[in-house]
Design goal:
Blueprint lengths: L6 H37 L21 E7 L3 E3 L4 E9 L18 E13 L2 E11 L4 E5 L3 E5 L5 E5 L3 E6 L29 H27 L7 H14 L8 H20 L8 H10 L5 H19 L6 H19 L12
Parallel strand pairs: 2-9
Antiparallel strand pairs: 1-3, 3-5, 4-5, 6-9, 7-8
Helix pairs in contact: 3-4, 4-6, 4-7, 5-6, 6-7
Amino acid sequence: MVRERPRSAEKTVLSLSALRRFGPVCCLALSILVAVGAAACKQRPSSPALSSGQEAPKAAERPAVEVRAEVDRAEVSVGEPVVFRVVLNAAPSVSVSLPDVGGRIQGLRIVEMGQDAPREIMGRRESGRWYRLEADLSGSYVLPVIKVPYTGPDGKEAWAETEPVYLKVLPPKPLSSAGEKPADIRDLKPLVEIRRPLPVRWILAASALLTAAGGAGFLLWRRGRRKTATPPTAEEHARRELADLDASGLVEEQRFREYVFGLSLVFRRYLERKFGIPAAEQTTEEVLQGLRNSQRLGDDLKRTARAFLEATDPIKYRGLEPDRKETESWRSELVNFVERAAVPDGNPLLSEAA
């Protein structure tokens, strides 16, 4: 009975056969690579040796003043704060200070600002300013480049400046789910009703004041009803207007035409108040027509009124200039007319004003 050889045994035999065939070739290739590498190392040029009087090259010297600007986050959302910091690093031999740059920040609100305490790092002085900023609108912002002038150790004027700092402001974060509010926003608590005891003393005092005020108002009202002033009569109005006309000084200044014009106006107003004829706004013909139709004037008063109006109208409208005698005569006619018209009512006459 013939047994089959296992497959694992066959794989082992094949591996040993391949090793016997290609092993010497691999060892020869490896030896060649090692020899080539050693030859390359021997041919590499070495650095030239320094002569006796030659100094080694110095490392690049650090600037006397350095200034840098940075933000704690390059991306924020609207309403989130971001800290903008400006740091000044200077050699101890240089006198320089960091200016306030808050006024140059555009588009961002400064909600807080301050200064870092000066400190010494590796033999150099370092100080800084910081600004806590917030943005109201989304978009890209560029914080300003800051230039710091100074005088170097060699006495030359120089300046150091920062690189521009870019800030991206994202729109406000949406709600995590419908109706859900961010964790930093809390609902207002409901109103709490505060019950206080009624101030009895204040209520009594207010009641007493209201009662006193009401009583005083009632007494004043009754007193006002008892002492209601009687409206002035037409004769009293005419007396006051004539006195005002006399006090105007027109006669003393010999401005007789203006004085006669005033007499005519007093006469027309008297007719209007006494007899209801709108004489101040009517022409002479209309006034005379109203006098003819009035039942309250006798014929004698109608003739007197007609004569007074016809005598004074030419002075008013034709530009005639009366003399003192004519002026005094017309004033007497006006006083006489009012006295005669007031007799039936028993009112005081205008003779006192004369």
